[in-house]
Amino acid sequence: MDRIVIYQKPTCSTCRKVYQALQAAGVDFDAIDYYLEPIPKEKLKELLSKMNISAKELIRKKEERYQTLKATKESLTEEVLIDWMVKYPELIERPIVEKGGQAILSRPAERITEFLK
């Protein structure tokens, strides 16, 4: 059976809700604080592929860093956005939950329920 991994920021309220839901469901999982253990570029690409979303959909657009990087320009490529998320983890929307060949952005937190079925 594939182990569940949650990529999170423990101080994030949505991350805490998903973490608690995983505990309540009694599933074994690993929790990775991606501020302390940054997600490598290839792993981030893999997660994007598993979630079937673009880097533009995963980036936190309300972050001050996003604004200072002028990331809103349409000319920015997936590679540039991914590089920014690797360098500045605060730009990654959270939490990401992965299980085998699947992953979801569990936002809102209730999305974890459908993922566990």
Characterise the protein shown here.
It is a single chain. The protein has 117 residues and is of the alpha+beta class. The chain has a single domain, classed as Glutaredoxin, CATH 3.40.30. The protein is 42% helix and 15% strand. The protein contains six helices and four strands; from the N terminus they run βαβααααββα. It has helices at residues 13-25, 41-51, 55-58, 64-68, 78-87, 111-116; strands at 4-8, 29-33, 96-99, 102-105. It has a four-stranded mixed sheet with strand order 2-1-3-4. β1 (4-8), α1 (13-25) and β2 form a beta-alpha-beta unit. The longest helix has 13 residues, at 13-25. The protein starts with a strand and ends with a helix. The relative contact order is 0.24.
Task: Offer a quick outline of the entry.
The chain has 117 residues and is an alpha+beta fold. The chain contains 6 helices and 4 strands. A 4-stranded mixed beta sheet has the order 2-1-3-4.
